[in-house]
Amino acid sequence: MTMQNLRRLGGGAGILAGLAAAWHLLGVAVIIPSARLSLSAQESPHKYLVFAHRHQDMLSWINLPGGVLAPLLGLILLLAVADRLREDAPDWTQIGLALGVVGIIGFAVGAFIKQFGLGSLVQFHVTNKTGAAIAFYAVNGTANAFLDLGGVALGLGVLVIGSVMLRMNGYYGMIGSFSIITGVAQILSGLTPHRTIYLIASVLTIAWFAGTGAAVWMEAAAGAPQKGRASQPREDISMVMGRGAQVQ
Questions:
Q1: Which positions ≥6 away from 195 have C-beta within 8 Å?
Q2: Average pLDDT over residues 237-248
Q3: Cβ atoms of residues 6 and 83 within 8 Å
Q4: 220 and 7 in contact (C-beta within 8 Å)?
Q5: How crowded is residue 132: how many other Cβ atoms within 10 Å of its Cβ?
Q6: Three-state DSSP class for 120?
Q7: Transmembrane ranges (predicted)?
Q8: Is 125 within 8 Å of 169 (Cβ atoms)?
Q9: Which of 43, 95, 211, 226 is the most exposed place for a label (fewest CB within 10 A)?
Q10: Which of 17, 2, 4 is nearest to 211 (CA)?
């Protein structure tokens, strides 16, 4: 696979990751609460497991595309972004990629545990509510720990990648500024279990996936990097003119 194909694939994956993450946020913050399970109630074992027993298909349609597929698509985007930035800042790009991969893995594992780990407790809750509640806290706590790890690691990775983009011209420079904001929000979301911060960080991450993916895809579709080159030391025009006079 050529670099242009990787970047085109990564850009498309980033756009799809943004859509998948938006669907997951819509499901968690709007669809599930409209079915009478609020955000706070989703952390209650009896309320959640009773709801899951009645709406298993709904939870699967929300969690699988958004919680599991979005991180995998985001991983492809990170690989494409790292390939694009490696020529300008190889060391920092590798650090950002490594942190981002850890974050993506954290999100994917956490979502996988929430979908299948908690799902396995639904039938158990019918026969043993106390035992299922205890198991719920253990499984849900493990899932949330992975999700928090994902938020902190991905936030740090986006911060590093954003610091590289800040030194670039054109839309990459603008994405770099937005990356700093998104990275800070992700870190705060991972360290602070507050619903408002979670919602803000989720919206920013959705926009970052889609915006970065669109930028990488458009540049790859154009055939060669144009506006995104890192800023290089520029020669003063008087120096260039003086050099031309010496040649003459």
A1: 39, 40
A2: 38
A3: yes
A4: yes
A5: 21
A6: coil
A7: 64-82, 94-113, 133-159, 171-191, 197-217
A8: no
A9: 226
A10: 17
In the numeric block, which tokens belong to residue 133? 């509640």
Domain boundaries, the chain: 3-227
Mean pLDDT rounded to a whole number for the chain: 88
The Cα 125–Cα 82 span in angstroms is: 45
Residue with tokens 């929430």: 114
Is the distance from CB of 143 to CB of 158 less than 8 angstroms?
no
More confident position, 66 or 200: 200
Amino acid at site 179 = S
Q: Quick: pLDDT tens for 123-157.
A: 999 999 999 999 999 999 999 999 999 999 999 99
User: What backbone phi and psi angles, to 5 degrees, belong to 9?
Assistant: -65, -45
Distance CA 131, CA 141 (A): 15
**Within a 10 A sphere around the Cβ of 204, how many other Cβ atoms?**
20
161's tokens: 């990648």
What percent of the chain is predicted at pLDDT more than 90? 75
Residue 45 tokens read as: 């074992």
Task: Answer whether 23's CB lies under 8 Å from 62's CB.
Answer: yes
Residue 170 gets the label, from left (phi > 0), alpha (psi -120 to 50) or beta, of: left
Distance CA 178, CA 130 (A): 46
Give the three-state DSSP class for 95. Answer: helix
Which tens digit of pLDDT belongs to each residue from 50-105? 999 999 999 999 998 888 899 999 999 999 999 999 888 889 999 999 999 999 99
